[in-house]
Structures are given as C-alpha cells and as structure tokens.
Fold:
Amino acid sequence: MNESRRTSAAAHLWRCNGLIWLALLALLLTSFGTAYIPLGGWTTLIGIAIAFVKAGLVAVLFMELSRSRALIRLAGAAGLTFLFVLFGLVTAEVLMRLSGR
Amino acid sequence: MSHAEAWLKEPWSDSQRERDAAKFGIWVFLASEMLFFGALLLTYTVCRIEDPHAFALAGRETNVWFGTVNTAVLLTSSLTMAVASQAANLDDAPRRLIGLCLAATALLGVAFLVIKGFEYKEDIEKHLVPGPSFPLAARASQIFFALYWILTVVHAVHLTIGIGLVSRLSGSILLGRLTPYRHPQIEVTALYWHLVDVIWIILYPLIYLPGRSL
Structure:
C-alpha cells in the first residue's frame, strides 16, 4: 500500500514537471525556427521574448516561486528590479546619444 | 529523532526556520548573480545597439546546432533536478529516486560541458578568437566573440561548481549518509542549478540566433 502510494506520488511529479519540460522544448524549437524567418528587428525581439517566457517558466514552476513565501519572492524581485534599472538607464543614454548623431 | 531533526544545525531552533533561512540566503545570492551576469549582458546590449550588423554577421559564425542541443540538455537537467527537489518534500521521500535524479542532473551537466568542448574546438579551428587572425573584418565582430568567450566560460565555471555540488549530494544520498526528507541542501542546490539554466536560456538567443535570417 505504502509502496503504491510512493509510486503514484513519483509518477505525479514526473507528469507535472514533464509537461513543463515539453513546453520548454517547444519554446526552444519555436525560437530556433523563428530565427530563420526574415522579420528585421522583430526576429531578435521574438527570440528574446521567448527566452523570457522560458526563464519565467523555470523560475515560477521549477524554482517554485509560485509556492514560495513573500520574502523569497521579494528577494528575486529585488534582483530583477535592480537589473531593469541598470538596463533602463544605460540603454536610454546609449539610444539618445546614437539618435543625436 | 525525526528525519528533519537529524540535519538541524546551530543556531536554528527548528527545521522550518533553517529551511526558510537557507532558501532566503540562496535567493539573495541568486539576485547578486543576476546582477553579475546582467552587467555582462548590458555590455553586450550596448555594443550590439552600436553595431547590430556586425553582431548579426558574427552570430552567424557560431554553431547553432551545438547551442540548441546544449540548451535542450540543460532544460532536461532542470527537469531531473526539479523532480529530485520536489520528491525530497514528499512524506516518504524516495531516497533512490532522489539520488538517481541528482546523478542524472550531474551527468547532463557533464554532457553539456563535453558538447561545449567540441564547440570550443571548432571555434578555435575557425580562428573565432579575437586577435590578428580573426576572420571577420568588422571590429564589433571581435567584440561579439570576446563577449561570447567571457559569457560562456563564466557560465561553464558556474555549471562546473553546480556539477560538483549535485554529485556530492547524489553520492551522500545514495550511500545513505544524508537523509533527503526536506533537507535544505537539496532545495538550495536545486535553486542554484536552475539559475545556471536560466542564464543559459537568456544567452541562447543572444549568442546563437543573431543573423540567421540574413
């Protein structure tokens, strides 16, 4: 009885995480395929957007942010916030400088 | 003595507090890692904005097959790591499943490094190392490959550390030296491993996909 409960719990883990893994592989193939479609600047943006979706799936589901306490989410969000500030300020400066050339 | 109490360490009064502290600590470390790789990626972004065509031409020179297969390998390693980490939270934590999943994770990490080694060999043979014999004319193409080497080598160092941590954990569990039930080391190691995977996920379109549609 105990052994069958353990087997079914393990099977449940493989099923749930396996579905996330399949979604990640599908997204990988999508970004690989779209890179060969000539869409100008959109090609890069689509590739990066798909990478963010994949990273989000890993962070929220594999790293269990969805089930974590607020303090843990805050620690992750702090890193992301500083990263966005860093990218926002620097790219704004570079783009303004280049547009003035 | 319960399983949880078996690994309780000073100064924690109970196992839940120790787990919470370990998880919070690793997330603060991971946030600092995000900023470390963020600074390198920002350098890449600025250089690419300044000369996107040279970056596209340089990106075409990387081997997209090695990059894509390696991404799939790391995604699979995240699957085995997630199963190991979540199985450790089951009431009757299956020692064999957790130990074998961790061993599979470490082996997939080694497979990634082996594939990367073949890719580096090909890159060196094609002289894709910044210097006098670099094959592309645009200066920014050399910057692309300088960043390619820095980013991928720093990532490989992180992965190597992860392989060491996961292998040690796997051995300890399979040999019965560590009780996996809700052990904070498993959760902390899993979070580190997943972040190394996330960094590669972000690197993949920046290194391997530019210029493919030219």
Remarks:
- The mean pLDDT of chain B is 94.
- Chain B touches chain A through 52 residues (CB under 8 Å).
- Helices of chain B lie at 3-6, 15-50, 52-61, 64-87, 95-125, 139-174, 184-207.
- The domain at 35-207 of chain B is CATH 1.20.120.80 (Four Helix Bundle (Hemerythrin (Met), subunit A)).
